[in-house]
Amino acid sequence: MNLPPSETPLAAPGGLQPACVLSFNANDPCGAGGLAADITTIATIGGYPAPVATGILVRDSSAVLAHHALSAELVAEQAAAVLEDLPVRAIKLGFAANTDNLAAVAAIASDYDSLPLIVHMPDLPWCTSEEIDDYHDAMSELVLPLASVLVGNHSTLWRWLLPQHDSARSPSARDLAAAAQQHGTPYVLVTGMPQPDAVLDNQLASAETVIASHKVARLPGRFIGCGDTLSAALCALLASGCSLEQAVPEALAYLDASLGAALHLGMGHAIPDRMYWAEPGDDAPDDDTSSSASLDLTRDDTTH
Ligand SMILES: Cc1ncc(CO)c(N)n1
After folding, report:
1. Which of 7, 111, 178, 179 could crosslink 161 through cysteines, CB 3.0-4.6 Å?
2. Which ranges are annotated Acidic residues under compositional bias (predicted)?
3. Which atom from ligand 1 is nearest to the alpha carbon of 192?
4. Contact 193, 173 (CB under 8 A)
């Protein structure tokens, strides 16, 4: 589908109702990532969160201690109930526990293929390497053919999409986008591109080109919940009518602001403060490498 560019990026469509965003994710009881990240991010940006639970994490601010999947039927039933009722404008996939749940998400996304599907590839430190291999395969085969944009950090995407890549030369964002494109995903937002010193480079790329490069100063400390926050922000902004080129710098600015105000609540890593968010546009980074054309987020199953 093609999202129209908006003059007022964060305005609700028609100015009347918040844009509904359905997110598939696990619950994280420490509130750093998972559904809590999605709900707070989407709501703070002005959207309406429709959280669909895929599983339960047992975690604190230091580590994930256990995870439990909900049944694929339960995942599908929750999503169907929401989609048949609320005017959902975009779908986010955070984490879906296992192949059966990813298949359920893919079936729903395929039924609603007019909606943009924003897919986050999380690090999965709580999974065994066998579980990670299965997750990678299911993401490639079932989810990427339907996704509009894939979001993930450079090393995670490299390990998944280009495991055979020359380890002496790290892949470019275009290399990663080309690998995603082979499975059907047109755009990739790669965070933490290798950079000297304290700079982080986040690149929006297609197989053909780097559409935008957004460099930010790396904030000191270790954070959890960054990927969920960024991908939920991106999804909410797209749901509100932003073009992808508008939404990416806004979502990155939102993450940056949340990390700048990060909370040290537990004994482990810092947690983004997603309620802390200045008026839109105030601190959006320069996006002088962005192209002005509107990108087509069509998810077209016919390419497969
Ligand atoms: C600005 C920024 N974004 C993300 C991270 C997470 O690594 C960081 N340290 N700083």
Report:
1. 179
2. 280-289
3. 7
4. yes
| Ranges 64-68, 107-111, 129-133, 288-292: which has the least confidence | 288-292
Residue with tokens 């293929």: 113
What are 173-184's pLDDT values in tens digits? 999 999 999 999
β-bridge mates for residue 58, sequence order: 66
Cα separation, 197 vs 174, in Å, equals: 22
Atom of ligand 1 nearest to the CA of 191: 4
Is residue 103 within 8 Å of residue 142, measured between CB atoms? yes
Angle at 245 between CA 271 and CA 47, to 5 degrees: 50
From the centroid of its chain, how far is CA 16?
26
Helix 72-83 / helix 99-111 crossing angle, nearest 10 deg = 20
- Determine the 3-state secondary structure of 179 from DSSP: helix
Half-sphere exposure of 61 (CA within 13 A, CB side): 13
How far apart CA 229 and CA 279 sit, in angstroms, is 17
Distance CA 260, CA 223 (A): 11
pLDDT higher than threshold 80 for residue 67: yes
- Which residues touch 171 (CB under 8 Å, ≥6 apart)? 158, 162, 165
- Two structure tokens written together for 45: 């940006």
223 lines ligand 1 (CB under 6 A): yes
Ligand 1 centre and the CA of 1: distance in Å? 31
Distance, in Å, from the CA atom of 39 to the CA atom of 46, rounded to the nearest integer, reads: 11
Amino acid in the structure at residue 120: H
For residues 131 and 124, the answer to whether their CB atoms sit within 8 Å is: yes
* Among 57, 41, 62, residue whose Cα is nearest residue 257: 41
**Element spanning 36, H or E:** helix 34-45
